[in-house]
Amino acid sequence: MGFSQVAVLASAQTELRPAWNDAQHIDLISSVVTNVFKGTGLSLDDVDFVIDSGSDVLDGRSISNCGFLGALGAHHKEEARVEEDGLWAALYGVNKIRSGASKVGLIVAYSKPSESAIDLYWSAMVEPFYQRPVGFGQKAALGMQAQRYLAAYGITDSDLADLVARRWAAAAANGGVAMGDAPDAAAVLGAGEAAHPLTNLMLSRPVDGAVAVLLGAEDVARRSGRAPVFITGMGTSMETHAFAERSANTLDSVAAAAKMALGKAGWDKAGAADVAEISGPSAVGELLVLEGLGLADAGKGLNAAMGDGINRSGGALPADPVIATGLVRLAEAAKQLAAPVRGGATGPEKAIVHGTGGLAMQTNCVFTLEV
Amino acid sequence: MYYAPETTPIDLPTFHSQIKLPYTLTPGRAAGIFLVEIANGRIVGSRFKDGSVIAPAQDFSPKDGEEPEALVEAPDTGELTGFTRVDGAVIGLIRLDGCANAFTHRILGELADLKVGQRVKAEWDGAAGQSILAIKGFVVAADAPVGTVKELGELPEPLGVVNYAFALDYEHAYGPYYGRMFDEIKQNGVFMGVRGSNADEALLPPREIDDITHKRTGTWKACADTGTIRACSIINIEVYGQTRQVPYVYAEVVLDGASTKMIHVIEIDDLEHAKKNIKPGTRVRAVWTKGERQGRVSDIERFEVIDG
Q: Do A124 and B9 touch (CB under 8 A)?
């Protein structure tokens, strides 16, 4: 018997907000777990395992998933925690189903960075003898990454501002993200320095929220409520922890993860995808991802980034539920592939999805989706 | 929260908490020797078999995990390879002369004066001791002579441990259910739970979704401040983070009217008496803290055994 194909059956998200002050983690989680089954014909009884992504550091309690099991719908079920972006939780779930061990998996990722000091979350990741005392952290790393990229390729901060404004406009159109008026390029440039040359709006905005994705084996998917979106390839790769040792102006691990995923999918290049949903903690981070995926040549990410198929949801810049962001990208890409199209028209059929984690995108994960 | 996506954000007060953990960090050999020597004004690096040198020193190559063949002294001059400014402070990557990697450190200077490839040198702070901050930062030094990597000679004992503390502050949201529970404790001195999805007994703390059935919970219900111990342990050992003097009893109490266990303590005078008289099944009552209630679980100071 061959390995089963695995499909995204459905997804649910809370609104992504700068702060969900009126809700606990369990409230956000139980909301998406309840909603994800709607229209699938499945219920929690059909779920063989639950895998959740969250951060103990962000949550402010150790083994925080233990307190959230009821909300996760994991009572007396097999449950596992992935302390990395939710796209890795999905990868774990896909492999459990592909192995034949299970049929239906519930993947949940959540984040409430509003409850903690997000800079300290990143600071906790760096080395305490050499790096932390000098103030090195996520912002500094992203700033240096951007400074070198702009200097190497002659790209200006106003180019980045155009990209950021485009992403916010896309998020406003797509919905599901709490915001006032989407900032235009001038507002992005005037947003105050975060890490030179990046302004505050050129960094992704941390938001609270939860997302659930229901995965199923092919036979379940064929009987479920909508046309299945199959996960046809997956890959992961990691950079060295030492930021200064990584290649400048390129993310080798994105290229390696993409190669693995494309090989499994049988695609000759990432450009085979009609749409891409990628996670970038900064505007330059997005460009580096597009170049790493092979959707643009080195230094040419900006043109690709401004294309129609990239981050139709708005991506991580307007809404980054840290550690749930990659799973949101998977949910958004699957929605784009599954959306019904008018008679005679054609919709996107292939998508590439990217998630990232660690300081300045140390680790990267790539999925290919097909209908 | 079934309806979470449709609700309007409400700006409610949050619950402050802090996690502060003490650490005794072990730098190991390379970083331990680096920290000893930096107090002497010397930068220690690692030299690998292929002759390449990295600084600050590491016990392994961050690229391939190889062990260094020797620890060496790196010069305090080099070249800027990248920089940024965060919260007004400039941080840069400095490739020290003779080294293959870059060193992350502060740059003492204005951003406008910096460019990649610029010569820099360390500015030392003799008073900072065994810390990376014995180098205050690097300053632009256009004509700094190119330094060379030297042998370190006899190695000192590495620094054993570094005392360290890390504090994380949180502002936790109460949510609609905990919010009412704490309000009721504060205003009325009553523990309010919600009935389970298919039971009269209340879940405490209350929540929207029943943990067992994952269905909506029922209506609100006031629980008594008396209950029954369902599990307990006599604590007679001091551990970090304790808020009470030992000995005391850690008890899981099911309040009358509830189905869930609440964790609290029972104070005791005598171990032997406690062993005989405090056990699962023992009836207890809450002793409320004197003074104004704060809307916290600590508004109950402790539980006591109901005699007879």
A: no
